[in-house]
Design goal:
Blueprint lengths: L1 H15 L8 E8 L4 E10 L2 E6 L4 E6 L3 E6 L14 H10 L6 E3 L2 H5 L9 E4 L16 E4 L11 E4 L2 E5 H6 L8 E2 L6 E3 L2 E2 L3 E10 H8 L3 H9 L2 E8 L4 E4 L3 H8 L17 H11 L1
Length: about 290
């Protein structure tokens, strides 16, 4: 059924290619060709891409124009911060004092478990815009580069930088729970910052997609590539200290399977394919 849905989305993308009005907007709602809806802020355009802030998670995102069916400009109201979920100002205090990981690069899972950095090179977090590599802030999930060689930091498990703990996306995919297979990322060498954690779990989020769905979309050419970009979804991820592995909430049902025996009142109704990540955060805060 899901494959049929993707094929329909591809057809719609081909029919609707570049039909939307490309104008900058302060806020509004866009409907994608797969009928998902995104509330956004600060929408701008460059070439065939829309750049905006997702109003639900305050993360910068981008989409090809062909993956967007309609855009409505309107004022939006985002949900109030959840109780006990750390604000951005509180996150640094949590990551600096509660996790206890010294600054440095943790090349292997074993290094991370023992809290022993493999090395402590001079590195910087940078974005990739064409041939430029501008410095980016601590909250941005991009790649790390060695300051001395300007080469990308690869094949490591985790990094502690500026008092924050980051997991490498490729390491998450390699060390995931056996039931979380078929997940992939467009940027496996990037890093995602831990948002909060405790004695049982560390919680983060990353844009991931089903590898088979992505492959099907890309096989359909240019319009398929546009649809493929809509398949990346911000998914909750926990590092499970007891089992020494990552658990990816790949969809709402998978999240419910994880939470039902730990906090039954936080099971979601699964009205959409993906769970509500704000509610996921609140639930994991209770069991962390």
């Amino acid at each position: 059924m899901r494959i049929i849905t993707f094929l329909v989305c591809l057809l719609m993308a081909q029919m609707a290619f570049s039909q939307i009005e490309k104008k900058n907007m302060t806020s509004g709602e866009m409907t994608l060709v797969n009928n998902d809806k995104i509330l956004f802020k600060d929408l701008t355009w460059k070439n065939d891409k829309a750049f905006y802030i997702n109003a639900n998670n305050n993360q910068a995102e981008e989409l090809f124009d062909a993956s967007i069916k309609t855009i409505e400009e309107k004022e939006i109201t985002t949900a109030a911060p959840l109780a006990n979920v750390p604000t951005k100002n509180e996150e640094k205090k949590i990551t600096s004092s509660s996790f206890g990981y010294p600054t440095g690069v943790y090349k292997t899972k074993e290094d991370f478990i023992s809290k022993t950095p493999s090395s402590n090179p001079q590195i910087s977090k940078r974005g990739l815009i064409g041939f430029e590599k501008p410095l980016v802030g601590d909250d941005e999930n991009y790649c790390f580069f060695y300051d001395t060689s300007d080469s990308k930091l690869k094949n490591v498990f985790a990094v502690v930088h500026n008092g924050y703990l980051y997991f490498n996306i490729a390491a998450i995919l390699v060390n995931r729970n056996k039931n979380d297979r078929a997940q992939t990322s467009d940027f496996p060498n990037s890093y995602t910052k831990v948002i909060f954690g405790g004695e049982n779990y560390l919680y983060t989020e990353a844009d991931l997609a089903n590898v088979w769905a992505k492959g099907l979309a890309y096989s359909a050419g240019a319009a398929g590539g546009a649809v493929a970009s809509t398949l990346n979804t911000g998914k909750g991820i926990v590092w499970d200290f007891k089992n020494q592995e990552f658990n990816i909430f790949k969809n709402c049902t998978d999240y419910n399977d994880f939470i039902k025996d730990k906090s039954a009142e936080d099971v979601q109704k699964c009205e959409n394919q993906q769970p509500n990540n704000l509610q996921v955060r609140e639930a994991v805060m209770k069991i962390k």
